[in-house]
LexA-binding, inner membrane-associated putative hydrolase (Kushneria indalinina DSM 14324), 223 residues
Amino acid sequence: MANFTTHFSVAAAGGALVGGLGWQAGLWPFVDVFPVAGLVALGGVVPDIDADQSRAVRLIFTLMAMLAVIGCVSALQPFLSLAELSGVGVGAYLFVRYPMSTLFKRFSVHRGIWHSLLAAVLAALVVAAVSYHLFVQTAIQSWIFAGAMLIGVLIHLLLDEIYSIDIEGRRLKRSFGTAFKLYDYGTPQTALLMGVVMLSMTPWLPPYMALQDIGNRVWALWS
């Protein structure tokens, strides 16, 4: 399978390409090129969140901890003093970065459910909800950012499958088919749990009409 550097480098290049082409096509303004490119690059390492000692785990849980700080401070700002908010922020960061990270690694399996199309959709929905509510982006921007995350994760899964092909030996490695799959067929209960999480997120997602607007923009490029 591809390593962290390969995943990140390819996804970063893909992100720059997607961000630039989307801007040139008029799908989003220049200011959105950078978050689009960054989210594609981040998506390129997200599936390796299930690898116990990978840099992806540390990177992603650090980002999640930072988001937890922003969310907690924003929600509690009207009710707490500056000193109390500081304590809450530090506590939120440490809790997500360490206990939650350790717990996640304890129950996750590498190349399990997080190396699947279902997980790719979940990651995209999380980005859509966070962009819309926490960072107060428009519905269209939020869905565009979600699409960027989805593209990044798909790049990761495809790279893993490509690295499972032994061209010189003209054979498929045992790891072939373990990345680009609908869900983890060995543990269907994880797919059910992920489906429940996705359904529970429905009230927090941006308006779906924005997806139609984005679709119309893309369709207009080919008509």
Summary: DSSP finds eight helices and two strands in the chain. Residues 10-50+110-222 form one domain.
